[in-house]
Design goal:
With 142 residues, the protein is mostly helical. It has seven helices and three strands; from the N terminus they run H-E-E-H-H-E-H-H-H-H. It has a three-stranded mixed β-sheet.
């Protein structure tokens, strides 16, 4: 079996992302509490998240789960998560890393969780260490 080059894999990923943006062959819609919605390809999200894999492939949902309500998720973070699922690109900011981490953890997107944790550790300073500690304790108790 021939290996796919990184450039070709990136080209495929970009094509899938472009198709999603245009709504081509999308087979599910994610709906958020704030009114935002995201047309997606179930296979792409399932490949990057065990949460979506279970949601879309369970015996009762494999062909019927096409409209998904996601409660308590911010549309800005969801946009980042969807972009990551398609392109493996993530823009992490110090002021949003913890909320993005919590959202990715909830949706079982290990790649984002790992990147957010690495970012938080690299950017840990006396000014933010108490906030990070409070966040860690809150997540531990949930």
């Amino acid at each position: 079996m021939m290996a796919v080059s990184r450039r070709r894999a990136a080209s495929y990923a970009q094509a899938l992302h472009d198709m999603r943006v245009r709504g081509v062959l999308c087979d599910a819609t994610l709906r958020l509490d704030d009114g935002a919605s995201f047309r997606v390809h179930r296979a792409v999200l399932s490949a990057s998240s065990s949460y979506f894999r279970a949601l879309f492939t369970s015996a009762t949902n494999s062909t019927t789960k096409k409209d998904v309500a996601l409660h308590g998720i911010n549309s800005t973070y969801m946009a980042s998560i969807v972009r990551y699922a398609y392109l493996q690109q993530l823009d992490i900011k110090e002021e949003t890393v913890l909320e993005l981490l919590a959202t990715a953890d909830y949706l079982c997107i290990d790649g984002i969780v790992e990147k957010c944790l690495a970012f938080a550790v690299e950017n840990l300073k006396p000014e933010n260490c108490i906030g990070v500690l409070k966040f860690a304790r809150q997540v531990q108790h949930e």
